[in-house]
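Researcher: Next sequence.
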Amino acid sequence: MTNTLVFVDMPTPDVQATTEFYRELFGWTINPRPQGVFHQIVPGEGLHLGLFDEAAQVPDPAPLPQQPRAGLHSRVYILVDAAPSEYLNKAVLLGATALWEQCYWEEFGGHHASFLDPWGNQIVMWEK
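Model: Next structure:
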């Protein structure tokens, strides 16, 4: 296969706190590689994700100073096993900011809801 998406990394100033947030929210296995610098998220089936320290920016060989985030940015979609509203409520209790409540997207035949994690990464939870 060529030109295949293999991984998505999310920046964070606190890799350990972000690890605990996603472990608690989705029950994911998260492997520190190395601890506090880059953590590999293994969400069961599907693609793996990563969390990287904004300061170190592994694997960038010459990281630049982190710029403040502004405007729109990429979204990470997570296929969930229950109503997205259930995960949205839990995410908010863990410190996330709700972006939109559960609604139906007719064109794709599924329900979704979205939040910004405490570090500014946007997650859309999807249930078909």
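Model: The domain at 1-60 is CATH 3.10.180.10 (2,3-Dihydroxybiphenyl 1,2-Dioxygenase; domain 1). The CA atoms of residues 83 and 99 lie 16 Å apart.
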